[in-house]
Amino acid sequence: MEKPISRSLVLLTCAALLTGPCAGEMRVWTSAEGGKTLEGEFVKLDGGTISLKRKDGTDLVFALDKLSLADRVHARELAERMAAGAATAAAAKDAVKADLTVFSQFKFGETRKEVQELLKKNSALEGGMVEAFMARTGINGIFYIDLDGIRFDLYFDFNDSDRLREISLQSASYDPGDYNGALKSAWGRLRSGFIIRYGEPTLATGYPAASQISEGVSMSSDIWELSDRHMYLGTGMTEGRVTCVLRCSGEKYVAPEPEE
To answer: Which of 21-25, 72-76, 89-93, 115-119 reaches the highest mean pLDDT?
Structure first.
């Protein structure tokens, strides 16, 4: 079955299409009198003033009416396309943020009951079951969320005092033969979404090698150290199948001591 394309992915693609032709377009501009020309890249249009950048990096700012009619029309078209592209890119960023708000809905230290109440109210999540059955089976693996067209099941880890310690999302599983194919592609799309949402990772080690993954073991490729939590993106293996793993913890990451 073909997986749906998420709204955030569509918006990101549209943003690239809208902004691409505007940036880096070096062209020849003609003066209103038609006797002079200059080569430059369009930067912006601010009211009646146009800004260009020459090949040597020099910035040129002058009145738009100094250019020919055709160039004035072209400059306005470029400005409109850039504005549309910026708006679409902003919408794409907001869509990705909305996709990942599942992590910010929960506070570490909350009780299991408080987490259950939040799960029932969270409109971004799907799945679930009748509360009576939830009490018997627990809450792990019965809620899921769609991130960039990939289903992720939601898991919670509580400490000995039954308070929330960690949240993790585990993707649909893949055959180990797809580790460097379909799974790596999914990992790359998710990483891009995390960078849009949280910025560049604090620590990045690259996509884990297949040889590093074994049953019950997950390896983090990227770590985001935020003010109140730490985000981990990586891969793992469960029941002989490989997955993308997203973890959110309130505990500070401690790097392992180097072996002597």
So the answer is: 72-76
